[in-house]
Structure formats: structure tokens, C-alpha cells
């Protein structure tokens, strides 16, 4: 029988006792309410942001498409990130906000009652929303920059709360 325990002298819980990568066994952890919020920024030329805001973009409502893409991506995080658990998310919220004159701030919030956190789901949501925004606007602005992707906060679980101190 294969030893699938997560004990590791260096504290890396994705390694088994033989040093092989494994999915963390969370079966002994009680389900708790968990929430994570992440952000991403997309910086662009001011005229690109004006085009998005004018509803005159030839591909339609850029923010709506990016929002849906972020939500769909959060639901499939386990398919994108190796060793990530499949979660039945109870809530996914993705918000895109124009920050004049040349930026879009993307916030993603994911919630679950489960045995493991939703940080990766929130980070995936904002990352894919940003990539979708880029994809929809690349014909008019290939110089857009996606940056400052980070976890802003997490609540619940064994490791407790986290809040990024310099959150914008």
C-alpha cells in the first residue's frame, strides 16, 4: 500500500514521506466557512479604456465577458492548478472597475464551506478576467499590462485570517 500521509520534515504539505508530490489529504479537517479575495490590475492606454466604457467596442461588453470568464475559471481551478482540490463553491463574485484614466481594477471573491481554502480560486478568477480583457482589447492596444495579481484577504480554516496590509 502506498503511504499517502502528508508528513514532511520541511513543512511542505504537498510532499509525501518519500518526497513525491501528492494532493494534500484534507479528509480529517472539518468543513468551515472560507472566503478569499484577490485582485488584478490591467493598465492600458487611456483611449482603450474610453473605448471599453463607451459601449462602442466591436466585441461587445468587455467587462461582462471578462466577469463571466473569471467566474467560469474559478469553477475550474482544480483543472488548471496541479494538486488543487475540487471545490463546490457557494459564491463567486468578480467585479471590474475602471480607474481613470488608464486602468481597470479586478476584484474576485470566492466562498465555500469546505475543508480547504479558496485562495487559488479567487486568484484564478482575477487572472482569467484580466487575460480576457486583454484578449478582447489586444487589437487596439497590445501594450496593455496585467499586474499586481495578489491575494488581498482570506478567512476561515486552520491557518486563520490573512489580510494584505497594503491593499488598494
UniProtKB/TrEMBL annotation:
This is Cyclic pyranopterin monophosphate synthase. GO terms for biological process: Mo-molybdopterin cofactor biosynthetic process. NCBIfam families: moaC (TIGR00581), PRK09364.1 (NF006870). The gene is moaC. Residues 23-157 form the Molybdopterin cofactor biosynthesis C (MoaC) domain. Its EC number is 4.6.1.17. Residues 1-20 have a biased composition (Polar residues). One of its GO terms (molecular function) is GTP 3',8'-cyclase activity.
Amino acid at each position: 500500500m502506498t503511504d499517502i500521509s502528508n508528513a514532511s520534515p520541511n513543512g511542505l504539505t504537498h510532499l509525501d514521506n518519500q518526497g513525491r508530490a501528492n494532493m494534500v489529504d484534507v479528509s480529517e479537517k472539518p468543513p468551515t466557512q472560507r472566503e478569499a479575495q484577490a485582485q488584478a490590475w490591467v493598465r492600458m492606454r487611456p483611449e482603450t479604456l474610453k473605448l471599453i466604457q463607451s459601449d462602442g467596442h466591436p466585441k461587445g461588453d468587455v467587462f461582462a465577458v471578462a466577469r463571466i470568464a473569471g467566474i467560469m475559471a474559478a469553477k475550474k481551478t482544480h483543472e488548471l492548478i496541479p494538486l488543487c482540490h475540487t471545490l463546490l463553491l457557494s459564491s463567486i463574485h468578480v467585479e471590474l472597475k475602471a480607474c481613470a484614466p488608464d486602468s481597470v481594477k479586478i476584484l474576485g471573491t470566492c466562498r465555500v464551506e469546505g475543508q480547504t481554502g479558496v485562495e487559488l480560486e479567487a486568484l484564478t478568477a482575477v487572472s482569467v478576467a484580466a487575460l480576457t480583457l486583454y484578449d478582447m482589447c489586444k487589437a487596439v492596444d497590445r501594450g496593455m499590462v496585467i499586474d499586481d495579481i495578489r491575494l488581498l484577504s482570506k478567512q476561515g480554516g486552520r491557518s486563520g485570517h490573512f489580510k494584505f496590509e497594503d491593499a488598494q
